Amino acid sequence: MTTSRGIDVSAYQGPQDWAKHKRDGVAFAFVKASEGQHSRDSRYATHITGAKAAGLIVGSYHFAWPNQSAASEAENYIAAVRSHAGPGYVHWLDLERYSDGRNYKGRSASQIKAWVAAWIAAVERAFPGQRVGVYTSASDLASGHVPSGVPLWYPAYPGSAVDSYPEAEKRARPRPSGRAPEFWQFVGSPLDRSVCYMSAAELRTWAGGGTPTRPKYEPFPGASWFTMGRKSPIVAAMHDRLVAVGCNRYQSSKNKDVIGSGDKASYEAWQRECGYSGAAAKWPPGPTTWTKLQVPNV
Question: Per-residue b/e over 50-86, b at no fewer than 16 CB within 10 Å?
Answer without folding.
Answer: bbbebebbbbbbbbbbbebebeebbbbbbebbeebbe
